[in-house]
UniProtKB/TrEMBL annotation:
UniProt-listed GO biological process terms: ribosome disassembly
Protein name per Swiss-Prot or TrEMBL: Elongation factor G
Taxonomic lineage of the native organism: Bacteria, Pseudomonadati, Pseudomonadota, Alphaproteobacteria, Hyphomicrobiales
Function per UniProt: Catalyzes the GTP-dependent ribosomal translocation step during translation elongation. During this step, the ribosome changes from the pre-translocational (PRE) to the post-translocational (POST) state as the newly formed A-site-bound peptidyl-tRNA and P-site-bound deacylated tRNA move to the P and E sites, respectively. Catalyzes the coordinated movement of the two tRNA molecules, the mRNA and conformational changes in the ribosome.
Domain Translation elongation factor EFG/EF2: residue ranges: 453-570
Pfam families tied to this protein: EFG_C (PF00679), EFG_III (PF14492), EFG_IV (PF03764), GTP_EFTU (PF00009)
Length: 672
């Protein structure tokens, strides 16, 4: 029986060569075609020179089937990896000997460590390396909680790596571009280094293997089986991380990587154990990605973690949602096309699982399976207000947005009824740009984006009185109402209060609600141009006319009375202040603090970030008006990895120059 397909994630910092590695893997295994990418069709060139979503390819190596999922590395798209990881058997972390990318590498490794995903490090771009692997390892170790095990060392000739020695195998290879490396005799000159590095590797393995420790002490040569057995166990148990070297661009080191995965990567049974899934039970899968084609077809990419699914099977997700598999398709690797069933371990496309999103766990039958935990999507850090170019597209925009947010859990949509604004929120400027390109290319909805508006309010700082007299004598029925009010400030957050202190029926009972309604409506726009809040309006006196008074007349008089009172009550702008939590490597905390204070923000304190050694969590308050591009500055001062979450906290008075600017902008907008 053929082995069950393994599913391996390719992850790592931006531009480290994950896509190049996937292409090299496919080339090496003769799986010709480029990996399938989202709905835009196979082999789409990458318009922005980076991966913006996971792409999946299946291939066969020496009879063993593999699915590789090439995950984006750029910080604005890296969240695409989160939903992929739980269902994978292992991850290959593609990285470089580049100190500047260390925080990004650490971010990826912390994520894998937190989820307990077994991992191998592939140090790429050995063709351009200038450091010895030991130096590289010293650098990279800082990013990994588990010890790194150097398993290969390069053979140098005239400053370039021309081959490598595999320390576990004790065999030397010479690189051949885009072809398997050829075995050569261990070069004499490399022997002392090889002995030293191999001993270091074995010593590390002996930390968890007493027999091996005995053998090393007694200078008995351990057999290969034991060494490979230990390497496989350490990978599975996360005790250590093997480090392989190579060049994806030249196809060097790719065969050894495949062999390591073939022999050492955990099989599905172990992945199930990691996820707490019993071996027995109905067929079970998890959705790692969702794709919508422009023509209404939804494809959920899922890994089968138990059993097998057939086309037409009824399934139930862990939240109880039921669906039917409309069709099954294989992914990439040249054989993309309809298939009748999906077997255990395979990663395939499930057609039309309506109501099931990325991360959904689903099982065959009517019973809801327990959910496989996947980390929640990242909180949005950048927003844009959307404006359709053609008003006719308003309705289509809503359904297209629903589809792109279904595909990409890092995106979300917010409707602000007050400000009459639809906002798209995501992980950064480029993330939103790509999303809008998708809206236009795939759903034919052309959209422009603006900086989101800020929900300013206004209030009053002192008490004042006002009078409104509405009187119209036209033809037959006249209109008459006279209203006297007092306004006074209320504590922040209390909103609006209406009191009636009229005595002796100066305003008839029936018209008191009219005064309140008129006041409420009028307060939607105060003297500064914004909704007025945190004030009490008291009806103190008034007058009516037996024939000419009406609900409308009293509402009009209430408005006039407010127009009289509010400007005398010392109106002031209120701006929303957000409670912000910033996560950053401690080395950049001081710079992150600077980004807060430079935005009229206030630092409340900071702490160590739980589970992230070497990181801080900074608590701050920042005005909403200043936060829209905070992420851009934050990333630029934290080697790209700083992030934040924000929520509304309170409103604060805004005075002086920033207030003048808001008011001037408001006037300019009103003028046209
Ligand atoms: N010198 C050298 N360059 C490489 C190697 N592998 C990849 N590159 C280059 O590194 C750049 C990034 O490669 P990609 O494969 O696109 O990187 P990626 O990790 O998929 O990028 P993202 O998914 O956007 O993070 C490209 O310019 C590649 O040509 C390698 O082995 N050696």
């Amino acid at each position: 029986m053929a082995a069950q397909p393994r599913c391996i994630a390719l992850v790592g910092p931006a531009q480290s060569g994950k896509t190049a590695l996937l292409e090299a893997l496919m080339e090496r295994t003769g799986s010709g075609e480029r990996p399938a990418r989202s709905g835009d069709g196979n082999g789409e060139s990458r318009p922005h020179g980076m991966s913006v979503e996971p792409s999946v390819a299946t291939l066969n190596f020496l009879g063993d089937p593999f699915t590789f999922v090439d995950c984006p590395g750029s910080i604005e798209f890296v969240h695409g990896m989160q939903a992929v990881l739980p269902a994978c058997d292992a991850a290959v972390v593609v990285c470089e000997a580049d100190e500047r990318k260390l925080p990004a590498l650490e971010y990826v490794l912390r994520t894998l460590e937190a989820q307990g995903v077994p991992r191998i490090l592939f140090v790429n771009k050995i063709d351009a390396a200038t450091q010895s692997p030991r130096e590289t390892l010293g650098l990279l170790q800082a990013a990994s909680a588990s010890p790194l095990l150097l398993r290969q060392i390069p053979i140098w000739q005239d400053g370039a790596a021309t081959g490598f020695i595999d320390l576990a195998l004790e065999r030397a290879f010479v690189y051949r571009n885009h072809a398997p490396s050829a075995v050569i005799a261990l070069p004499e000159g490399e022997l002392p280094q090889e002995k030293e590095d191999r001993f270091t590797l074995l010593e590390r393995l002996a930390d968890h293997d007493d027999v091996l420790m005995e053998q090393l002490i007694s200078e008995i040569e351990p057999d290969r089986e034991r060494i490979f057995g230990d390497l496989a166990r350490e990978l599975r148990e996360g005790l250590a991380v093997s480090v392989l070297i190579g060049s994806a661009a030249r196809g060097n080191g790719v065969g050894r990587l495949l062999k390591a995965l073939r022999h050492e990567a955990p099989a599905l049974a172990e992945t199930r154990a990691r996820l707490g899934i019993p071996a027995d039970g109905p067929a079970l899968a998890q959705v790692i990605q969702t794709r919508h084609t422009g023509f209404g077809g939804k494809l959920s990419i899922g890994r089968v973690l138990r059993g097998a699914f057939q086309e037409g099977d009824a399934v139930t997700a862990s939240d109880g949602t039921g669906a039917r598999i409309a069709g099954l398709v294989s992914l990439g690797g040249g054989q993309a096309g309809r298939i009748a069933s999906a077997t255990e371990g395979e990663t395939v496309g499930f057609g039309r699982l309506e109501g099931l999103g990325t991360r959904a766990t689903f099982a065959a039958g009517a019973a809801a399976p327990p959910e496989i935990a996947a980390p929640p999507p990242p909180a949005p850090v950048y927003a844009a207000a959307l404006r359709v170019r053609d008003r006719k597209d308003d309705v289509r925009l809503t359904s297209a947005l629903a589809k792109i947010t279904d595909e990409d859990p890092g995106l979300c949509v917010e409707q602000d009824a007050d400000l009459e604004e639809i906002r798209l929120l995501g992980q950064g400027e480029m993330h939103l740009r790509v999303a809008l390109e998708r809206l236009s290319a795939r759903f034919g909805v052309a959209v422009d984006k603006d900086r989101p508006k800020v929900g300013y309010r206004e209030t009053i700082r002192s008490a004042a009185a006002g009078r409104g007299r509405h009187k119209k004598q036209t033809g037959g029925h006249g209109q008459f109402a006279d209203v006297q009010i007092a306004v006074r400030p209320l504590p922040r957050g209390e909103g609006f209060l209406f009191e009636d202190e009229v005595v002796g029926g100066a305003v008839p009972r029936a018209y008191i609600p009219s005064v309140e309604a008129g006041a409420r409506a009028h307060l939607r726009r105060g003297p500064l141009g914004f909704p007025v809040i945190d004030l009490c309006v008291t009806l103190t006196d008034g007058a009516s006319h037996a024939v000419d008074s009406s609900d409308a007349a009293f509402q009009a008089a209430a408005r006039l009375a407010l127009d009289d009172a509010l400007p005398k009550a010392d109106p002031v702008l209120l701006e929303p202040i957000l409670a912000v939590e910033i996560a950053t490597p401690s080395a950049y905390t001081a710079k992150a603090t600077g980004a807060v204070t430079g935005r009229r923000g206030q630092i409340l304190g900071f702490d160590a970030r739980p589970g992230w050694p070497g990181w801080d969590l900074l608590q701050a308050q920042i005005p909403e008006a200043e936060i829209w591009d905070l992420i851009i500055e934050l990333r630029s001062v934290t080697a790209g990895v700083g992030s934040f979450t924000a929520r509304f906290d309170h409103r604060a008075e805004l005075t002086g120059r920033p207030a003048d600017l808001v008011l001037a902008n408001g006037l300019a907008r009103r003028a046209g």
